[in-house]
Amino acid sequence: MVKKVILNAKVITPKELTLPSTIWIEDGQIQKIEAQDYPKIPDDYQIIDAKGQLLIPGMIDVHIHGANGFDMMDGTEESILEVSKTCAKTGCTSFLVTSVTSSMEDLLQMIHNVKQVMGNEPGAKIEGIHLEGPYLNVKRKGMQNENFLRHPNMEEMEIILKEAGSLIKMVTIAPELPGGIEMVEFLKEKGIIVSIAHSDATYEEAKNAFSKGASHITHCFNGMRPIHHRDPGLIVAAFEEPHVSLQAIVDHVHLHPAVIRLMHRIKGAEGVVLITDALQAMYMGDGEYEFGGHQVTVSDGIARLANGTLASSTVTMNEALRNTVDCGIPLRDAVYMASTAPANILGLENKGRILPGADADLVLVDSEYNVIWTMISGHQLFT
After folding, report:
1. Is the CB of residue 124 less than 8 Å from the CB of residue 84?
2. Is position 277 annotated as part of the catalytic site?
3. Torsion-angle region of 137 (φ positive above 0: left; ψ -120 to 50: alpha; else: beta)
């Protein structure tokens, strides 16, 4: 039995900030949390001194394409493993492998590779797959490859699900396309989170999709019909639906700080999920990259196509957390948005929180939210 105790930590729980605290861990789970400085520690416990730094739940990224020079759609198992490792370095302990619009062959190969590496991740754990496309609206395609965009196809989705089994956790679609509502209903029945983006849905079309089972918005405000006072579109429709949650790319590029505050004010921490939407340039820096069949230039950390279209982001989860706090969101809520909210959406009851019985997925960060170390299931990484 592996036993560890973390001393002298400022701890963010779902309800409060406690300090200093002691966290007792056995076999990868949190056993108890005590608000005391120097408890009596049995000899069989490994002692970890947090030195007064902030301890948060492991962050969960439901939307990431690549990192550190590796694209998870490139057809190799190595890329998925490398993204897992890099995620852990940035305080992310669980993630969804996220596709881009592609050929059926490439998508099925990615699914096959995920199945091969799950359980052997060197860092963050794979919680499933997020299909971003291919059933997206060309009018709001963003960086998605138009050559592979198509209308919802039930037979094709059956093939995907046959290959993936229960691995598909989220599908982003444009519900206004022919067959879109039928696909929403079908995926909902399968227990899959239906998200909307790269969509030109009107307010009425979005409301219909939400009534049929859609419950999430991918990279809110980006790749969708904008708000207009006579044409509110899907964003306002989502704001009105209590069961609909929103993804936010908080990189000071995709969303203005005032918009972050608006999303938080309307939905609360429970209804906003921090994501990276990162391509392989994350953790790499400026340069030229290939992503989704396009050449992408990253300059000053901003990824764009040749025509100026934003092409995902390079932000990390710990940077997104820092940026969210900088936008004026309370620390406790920002942590909830990075950890607990995505855990709740994915049904991961034992993750995204520092509570007795939860998995010991923990991240120690300094005052600037730089990662000091990451712990996954009680195993301390990248110290």
Report:
1. yes
2. yes
3. beta
- Which CA distances in Å does 108 have to 76, 98, 204, 244? 12, 13, 34, 29
Kindly give, in sequence order, each residue whose CB lies less than 8 Å from that of residue 367, ignoring residues fewer than 6 positions away.
Answer: 53, 54
Full-prediction pTM beyond 0.90? yes
Instruction: Quote the Cα angle for 66-327-217, to 5°.
Output: 50
Q: Residue 72 carries which side chain, given as an amino acid letter? A: M
Assess contact for 318 and 255: CB atoms under 8 A: no
Concatenating the DSSP letter of every residue in 175-188 gives TTSTTHHHHHHHHH
pLDDT of residue 15: 65
Assign 211 to helix, strand or coil: helix
Considering the candidates 200, 277, 333, 361, report the single residue annotated as catalytic: 277
Query: How many Å apart are CA 331 and CA 371, to the nearest integer?
Result: 16
Q: Which two tokens stand for residue 274?
A: 């921090």
List the Cα angle 326/317/309 in 5-degree steps.
85
- Side chain identity at residue 36, one-letter code: Q
Cis peptide before 134 (omega within 30 of 0): yes
pLDDT tens-digit profile of 323-340?
999 999 999 999 999 999
Domains and CATH numbers, the chain: 3-56+355-381 (2.30.40.10), 57-346 (3.20.20.140)
